[in-house]
């Protein structure tokens, strides 16, 4: 009896599902009731809404509700769908299988992984919900503005899908004026932080793929006609300030005014047919510099709209193998970072977080920070502006990407354009980076060439680079030969190991190096032709030793000890007449672990001493950002008792405890490189 009743109920459900157009099947097909439907959702505004911190805005930060949906059953249109809006049962007999009022609380901005222990490794769909009221005014437009949502976000307002953005990390906005109601606006965000082969980044990263509303959320008010964004920079001759202003709703011939009170500047231009206006204003401002980070208040006005910002003016360029800031040579004394705060797991989402992080970088004596491997919050560049730190900003084209996938390229182009349009007024930002450690292929060259063209079209006032991996097979072959020659004359290797080294040299024939000979490592990645600065990640003393030992049949201990002696004999250079930049080197260490061997502070410090000796006599090298300021979360790093899901290459641990290598680098930046600004 029960079996037949269950069959009947299921048949009725299937007929109901088949009657729904979203579930309609071909005549001879059996309906598939649990397939998640794909929503048709508008794209967000293509241009980044800039200058938002000077606008009238209602913060939507704070406590939200969170529902976890690994089966993605909440998507509207499905049998269990309806999670895109808050609902309460009309009576005790109505079946609802979700409830926002009873859901867990979650803080925005922030990631959900570190706020809920059970979601630490979670990589899938969640739903965020909150209500808000707004006293909407006439002749006013309202825009939902998101600083970033990782990684695939669909926005629903009062049940209507209003925007979907893929990619994470970068800002997007949508005009929601037509969807607002005076009270009880129901805002729901579906977010999926799962990454795969076609995403940017891909599913394999050496950092934590934090999910959720990781940045600020605001409801921004503008007039009906408003300024969308504006780029205000100093020209390369340092005698004029140029402004490119994008507007919405104005008629051709309407005016835009730029005012810089401290420079006694007030100049007006007319808006063109496409809504843009351009100005060139003769001026010689005090130049922004790490030693004197001067900022000016810049005001824009068009119709009833007014925005303002604090902007510094400087130039950055190259001359041969030299980097020139404001026409003067400079070396980048840097450190790499991740967007994680000191003393707390998760994302660094506030100015306070970034100020503490960058202050510890300044304690090293740096003038430069590499913000790897993805765009940080807008607060990072603002803090760098104020503190006088030069900044490298990057998009997550990391390791291997689906180079031939058109959708992947579209996400990458969207990320780089949104990053640039957000931060093109930050004097601190001097390098846009399009990639990290990408292996050579023709499809990779085409993909990254497209991004580099985009960068130059959007902003030609900064340098372009990418952290290159080099030809590691060729490089390790050369290193092995020179290391064998070095080992022949060293008392570190045993007689058996010296015999192996002799065999390596014999195999090299006439190309075998002499004992004690120097070695020049030349980076010739063809991407070097397209970038302004040839950046290179190298790990002498860490990964290279682990790779060489089994290949040569020599103990890893011997290789590591020989390499610490050998590294200072190496000279780094490129095949291009451009500045060279060492974007990564380093070694892992558990804070407090002392003695011999890997994972000790002593070994990490020894690698830093050897690296500094090498780079000090490499004249083409004009800067470096060792890897990395702070230990950071990484799913790749699972070694119990040492890594515990953290990359341990930091100069400080996650709580700010300094390792010995911190002082090695600090002494170098405040000693031999102290006069390089």
What are the key terms here?
677 residues, alpha/beta, Jelly Rolls, Immunoglobulin-like, 4 domains, eight-stranded parallel β-barrel, six-stranded antiparallel β-sheet, 11 helices, 23% helix
Task: Please outline what is shown here.
The chain is of the alpha/beta class and 677 residues long. It is built from eleven helices and 32 strands.
What is the fold's blueprint, element by element?
Elements: H1 2-19, E1 57-59, E2 62-68, E3 104-108, E4 125-132, E5 140-146, E6 152-157, E7 160-166, E8 172-175, E9 185-192, E10 217-223, E11 226-234, E12 240-248, E13 255-260, E14 265-270, E15 276-282, E16 296-302, E17 305-311, E18 316-319, E19 322-325, E20 328-329, E21 332-337, H2 351-363, E22 368-371, H3 378-387, E23 390-394, H4 406-423, E24 429-436, H5 442-458, E25 463-468, H6 472-488, H7 495-508, E26 519-523, E27 534-537, H8 543-552, H9 556-566, E28 570-574, E29 580-584, H10 601-616, E30 621-624, E31 632-633, E32 646-647, H11 660-669
Parallel strand pairs: 21-22, 21-30, 22-23, 23-24, 24-25, 25-27, 26-28, 27-29, 29-30
Antiparallel strand pairs: 1-10, 2-3, 2-4, 4-9, 5-8, 5-10, 6-7, 6-9, 11-12, 12-15, 13-14, 13-16, 16-17, 18-19, 19-20, 31-32
